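Tutorial, part two.
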Amino acid sequence: MSPTPRHTALDALHRSLGATMTDFAGWDMPLRYGSERDEHNAVRTRAGLFDLSHMGEITVTGPQAVDLLNYALVGNIGSVGTGRARYTMICQADGGILDDLIVYRLQDQEFMVVANAGNAQVVLDALTERAPGFDAQVRDDRDAYALIAVQGPESPGILKSVTDADLDGLKYYAGLPGTVAGVPALIARTGYTGEDGFELFVAPEHAEKLWRALTEAGAPAGLVPCGLSCRDTLRLEAGMPLYGHELTTALTPFDAGLGRVVKFDKTTHADDFVGAEALRAAAERAEAAPPRKLVGLVAEGRRVPRAGMSVVADGKVIGEVTSGAPSPTLGKPIAMAYVDAAHAAPGTPGVGVDIRGTHEPYEVVALPFYKRQK
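Running the prediction step on this input gives:
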């Protein structure tokens, strides 16, 4: 028997709003409330409200918290200023990606690592295993937070109406403690939609009050509640990788075209970081002979490509689709795929996707498919 799914603090509220619920990484989460296309378009043009409480928060504290994180992760965490955040990854010793993460430096010796829901235990275990020898503590804080995101061009105005925190001074990938609708929160200018927006970390008992306040404040601006379905099409259009699709343990960050997150020159008490040797070799391989490259594909027809389908050219398999969906913004099906370097240039002719035996024509494009006007 499968374990009973976990419920977020907003579960009853989602059901009262008529949400279609789905199991996601062991959590019962809202897939959509009404039309996923309408929810998607609301985030692109107005604002959307998301429950992301399934994400996994892990706190690392202590005099050597930085050294532990520099050893355990591929990024240079020492260069993250207090109140700032960084996108990074945690890898196996062989360089395979265990998860992609956001690390927030809350105080000089306190960090919050936010892992994907499906990998939270894996990341917690890996950090715990890598901690001995460092004067630092790893704490499972998954139950200490609910996470609510407000995303879209209207989100700064909506949030300003319920907080006196300095949102104008809050840069992208920064976080500051503040009060939102009378609730203490960590306000982070981060998101997974390709739009401006904020992620609010609060105590679970405050989640419902905050959700209702944002719903009320956002009503005049056209804010709507949004589920996981449009979160996926939004991140796909924005060319953002999803663990289990674009990122897996079979790929190094260099294979994924994200070698920039790996920092070999960080200063740390540790001789090196986990996976460093394998990642140096992966970097050299990528330079010598580029691996398959992550590209965008735009359909000429109406058929939607799905993860695992083969990308073909001249009758040969040249790659694999990692994510695919209809794009509400482009009005056509789109996909991300790893393809051989020889076919990765935008406009490469003769590329198709094998959809149940038919080779459907696709245009190769550079990622992202969509970039907001700043």
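Residues 254 and 283 are 6 Å apart (CA to CA). In part three we will examine how such features are distributed along the chain.
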